[in-house]
Structures are given as C-alpha cells and as structure tokens.
Amino acid sequence: MFRRWWFVRLLRDNGPGAGAARRRATKHDRALLLREWEVIRDRLAVFAAQRVTAAGEVFRAAELTLPAEESAARADYLWALEAFEAAGRLLEDPADLPELAAAAVLAERAVERLAAVHAEHAGRRPDPPVVRCFYNPLHAAAAQPPARSKVKASRRPRTGAREAAADRRPSCRDCRRAILAGEVPDVLPALLPAGATGRRSPAALVPYYVVPQQWSVWAVTGCGAYDDGVPALVLRGEHRRRRP
Ligand SMILES: [Zn+2]
C-alpha cells in the first residue's frame, strides 16, 4: 500500500545561516512530504473505513448468545466486540497513519476472534491467530519462521546478519525478501512532529515502530496486532496519552 514511501525522509529545519536557496528547497521538501503524508492518510482512511464496515456486517450476521458455562468463549466474544468498537472509535478522529492502520487491524482481529468464538461454540478447534507483519501490520500474514528448535544447534546452517535481522520480527514474504536483500521493507510510516526529540529536532516521516515507545502505543503493540489490551486502552481514551 505504501510502495512510494520506501525510505525515511526528513523535514529539515531552517538552521541559522542557511542560504535562501536552501530555505526554498527545505520549504519545498516539507510541502512535498506533507502532501505525500496526506495522500497516504486519505487512502488509508478509506481502507480502514472499509475494514470496519465489513467487520460490522460480519458481526450483525453472526450475533451470538452464549451460555454462562462457555466462559472462555464469552470472554473472547466480549473482546471481539470491544475490538470492533475500538476500531470505530479510532476512525472518528485519527491523529496519524498508525491510528488508521490500528483501526483496520482491530477490525480484522475482531472478525478473526468472532470466527474463533463460533468455532469454540460449535465444538471445533479454532484456526490459530493470524500473525501480522511487524513492518506493516496491513501486509499479508507473516510467513512461518523456520522450525529451528528441532534442528540440533551444531547442524544449524550459519546465518548472516541479514538472516538474523529477518528472523528478529514476524514479517510477510515481501518484507522478509527485502530484508534479506539488504533493502528497506515497505514499512508503515508515522509523522514525528518537529521538536519531538529535542528543541531543534526536525519533523520526520519515520517507520511507525521507531517512534519512541513512551509516545506511541502503536510502536509498542504493532498497531494493536500483538496486544490484546489495546481495545480497552482505546475505549478508555488512553491511546494518546503518550504522544509528545
Ligand atoms: Zn510486510
């Protein structure tokens, strides 16, 4: 979805003594970058709204009444409903791209959990949870990591730095291929405001996961992909308290 955004670009400050030409270029760069951010935001807003709407249709068609003795399924059902509600809440006034991505992620996770609840209720084994790509949780599901634990350490093939980097986080096939090729994967960007990391620090468009974790719940949780506590956090309105 973000093929055009494949590298980190900085919005430079106009430092003291900078020439007029440099100031013009900087202003031009800033305008270009902000326009690009707006284009991505608008596309992502449409996509996220579609995911939330689709989830709403699934919930309406698959309503459940669970008996008290199915306590695990009831807890999962409650979580799915909260995740769906949180996804809708995030669409109301999104602050940045990761919030929109989180709306789509939570809507999809809500539908997945609902399907698991139906399976549990019917006495079937639910599908394993989808593991999302860390670099962009809107990508295809992460490829299964190699089952190395079954291979004796002495027989393991030696892996280089790139293989180690590729194995460090769950990644979809394309992102893994990019990392193995020494390229930057097609990451989800976030806008880091000017002054966020110091009085003179420039605004920057950065991978969402490098935003300091004390400011971004999305950097910590993979846009809600890896943490079941996110829906409750959003519904309490605490997902923005960490912003600078
Ligand atoms: Zn990916």
From TrEMBL:
Which segments show compositional bias classed as Basic residues? 149-159
Compositional bias segments (type: Basic and acidic residues)? 160-169
Region (Disordered), start-end ranges: 144-169
Q: Which domain of life is it from?
A: Bacteria
What protein is this chain from?
Answer: Uncharacterized protein
Q: Taxonomic lineage per UniProt?
A: Bacteria, Bacillati, Actinomycetota, Actinomycetes, Kitasatosporales
